[in-house]
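Final report, Chapter 2: Outcomes

The project's central promise was a pipeline that accepts a single protein chain and returns its three-dimensional structure in a standardized token representation, suitable for archiving and comparison. That pipeline is now operational. To close this chapter, we reproduce one record exactly as it appears in the project archive, with the input sequence first and the structure output second.
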Amino acid sequence: MAVTARKSIRPMSAFLLSSVALGFTPQTAWAQQAPAASNGDIVVTARRRNETLTSVPIAISAFSGDQLAAKGAGDITALADEVPNVTLEPSRGTNSTLSAFIRGVGQQDPVSGFEQGVGIYLDDVYLNRPQAAVLDIYDVERVEVLRGPQGTLYGRNTIGGAIKYVTKKIDDKLHLGLRGTYGNYDQADGIVTLSSPLTKDGLLRASGTIARLTRGGFGRNVTTGLSNYNKDIWAGRGTLEVHGDKIFARLTGDVTHDMSNPRGGHREITGQLTGAPVLANVFDTAAGLNSPKQDVKAWGWSLFLEARPSDELTLRSITAFRKDDSASPIDFDATASQDVDVPAYYRNKQWSQELQVLYSKGRFNGMAGFYYLNATALTQFDVRLFTTLAGLTAFTNANIRTDTMAGFVNMSYDITDQISLEAGGRYTWDKRNAQILRQNYLGGGSPVFGGAGTAFGNPSTNFLGSASYNKFTPRVSVNWKPDSANTLYASYSQGFKGGGFDPRGVGVNAPAGVSQGQYLSFRPEKVDSYELGLKTRLFDRKLALNLAAFRMDYTDVQIPGSVACTVAGLPSFCGVVSNAGKARMQGVEAEARVKLGALSLNGSLGYIDAKYRQYITLIAGQPTDVAANRKVQNTPAWTGNASATYALPVPSGSLDLTGGVSWKSTTYQFEVPNPYLDQPAYALLDASLVYRAPGGRWTLGVYGKNLADKRYKTSGYTYVAGNAVTGALTTNAAGNLIPTLGKEGVLTTYWGNPRQVFATATINF
């Protein structure tokens, strides 16, 4: 990797295919709007063509919009209770920033400079940043969750897996839909959808959806008086489609404005400076920081063009722009003290262009694609340590630009009616341009956040540079279908995630003879993934069973983190990102669905043995392997769920009674185990009763989530002293934990939702 002066790359034209597409005949069905199969199996487009869920030779879970509605799913984090070896949750101290892990691969650090390990796609558009990625579920056709590296079929290479959120296609009839929800904690949601053909022949169609999503807090902020863990969101989506004889086109735009209060954490220890108590309710907080006001705005548009010049050939173009701005007051110590207070701004935008050529004839199916992304991510934040030294602030301004291009191809050939070979490859070129400023202030916060502080000394980091990362990643599989009810496959794939620059790194702390750029940078990471799978339908197709066994060898694992440090003689906050070494993930996954007359049974089970095989860190200035004392974060060994639905007989319509349980074994929040932050094994109980009128004209459902009111941690912050090798927390002579940043001691947790009961009614005209 070479550090060079940054250069500008102009975005690619947005409409490369539009001029040629107009002369072609239409495709019979838009690939992203796959209908359900006649036997009730979901049709997915994981391989960019319509295939049933139980026949596609990939580890994939999928849920239709109706299934998600029946479960009372509010946003995509609900999928983590249904899909094996998946963790999805709001990031620490946020309402709408997503932390996602699949099979032990992911990323929970939301600051610029760190790419996500799991790709989130909204109608085939990759969301480059995790801010505003906790997508609320409305107007959805289906959601697909693909486990393992994805690169030969998708625009952006994702090393851990992908989640595809697919919105509904507009039909050729006037439709008005209303959905309302009311529940405890003053939950009140309303969604209105209107769609209609604009021409008599149905050539031009339009739809629009407005959503208002609100809920009171699960707790309160005892310092500011605000409710805590509340929800206050406006969202909307508009779509215009052309269903012509020669082209399918879709122009869509969406906007979300999240005005929820800041999510304050719960202190797990008494304040070491002020004696701030541990509050009885885990959803209560004493966090005093409330500036800037919490506010998240996200919007974007995309243009999808598809044409078929012949029965064998399909051409597609996907052009998109997205932008989001977040203001977040994050109070690490969760006290009224200005101890470790972090006001932050995240400002992200992206342009992307994807081109696809698909060819299918006889026994051959193939796809070739090109992808380009230009994205900028600006992260600005103060770390205010006023209790350490009056008015002391460490300010960070990190502007990271990503330019990436890739060419990818995937081909399959049916050697016989039962056996097929599939192979693909991807070449990725990533470039990072970084502009990082770290500056201490005295006398108050930085001017960016309206503080009265003045710059103290020279910047500890003032870096301008770039780095490029190139990688070819292959995929190959052998698939055997002995009959229409069984699919067996074996596959190998490789995943890659480019390196970057740590926005929190302090250049003046670089070892002698090492440049700032080398000290701030980290290398790409790579995964080699091996998988065996079986998908079968048994007992006259009443039982659907999907099994997968996998092994992943993970090298140069990127581990971002931050610690207390000293800069120019002053206490500060420093990044310590590293390529830890090697990890190995291996395990099995099972998903089953049984239909026994009026009774339906569903379940999944995942087991993963995830461990570091090498974890190199500096201890007393010497590289030391501490793998035996490190855990893979956000990756419980066991995940599973089981549910039963009984169709109760009623004079008209249908009435479904559902009960279910989901569970996870012990979850470690970070690589170093911490008894205050880590979550022991737990289970959640859910139930619902849903009536559907004949023809689906209206529905009424009552739902209960986490009925046992289980308390479980999802994330947290820690800045207290521990043993460098084992991580065991250390105490002073008085038996108190020793703060390493600030004076209060930071051990702060965030919690999953308590028991919620709500009713939802829908009306369709």
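Archive annotation: The first helix runs from residue 18 to 21.
This record, like all others produced under the grant, will remain available to the consortium after the project formally closes.
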